[in-house]
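User: I'm writing a tutorial on reading structure tokens. Could you give me a worked example: one chain, its sequence, then its tokens, then a sentence or two explaining what the tokens reveal?
Assistant: Sure. Here is the example chain.
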Amino acid sequence: MGSDRDQIVEHLKFLAELGVDGISSDPLWRTRPGDSLWDSPSEAHAADDIAPAERLHGIREDLGDCTRCRLHGGRSHLVFGVGRPDADLMFIGEAPGRDEDLQGEPFVGRAGQLLTKIIEAMDLRREDVYIANVIKCRPPQNRNPERDEVETCRPFLFAQIDAVRPRVIVALGSFAVRTLLDDDRMPISRARGRVYECRGARLVPTFHPAFLLRSPDRKRDVWEDMKRVRSILRGD
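And here are its predicted structure tokens:
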């Protein structure tokens, strides 16, 4: 019992750090994507006879044991994506890190734990959203992805977006923003605060969770971005 209470206290502290002033009992944020209060992407594309999960499976099959760029030589696992195949909300980061490479799942290290807390602060669960990266293999020493590596992986990322058909995409950090907006010079500091169109979805840029680990004072900025995401999903 005490353990549960401690977890609740820690969660409330995290919400306070994000700038959340209280907890809402609004049933909308306890309703999961696909329920009656949400506009399901699958409803908007009811004529399609291939389910999002099947589409994603096909994309993963196309990737196979990918050797299309130099990064394949140093990877432990190819990191494809995880989450609800028909999610209304999709998070896209930069590339796998050490933990992701070892486990084959995006955002499972310290930055991933923070991302999970951010998702939960929105009164959603990690399994309600879809999470992917621009790059599917870990760059050596976590260096920045190079242009040809991004160009090699980008078609598979775009295919993932087209399969999931989210209503909102959250671009985590500069590399995700630049890839999705096709603008190599766009800094995250300038992209934040605006909403863009991307492959039929609304694109909301925000800071990468790894950046927040180094600069926790920017958590409030991210929470403002997540409130914008919630507003779009609610149709406000």
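What the tokens reveal: Strands lie at 81-83, 89-93, 130-133, 168-172, 196-198, 201-206. The mean pLDDT is 86.
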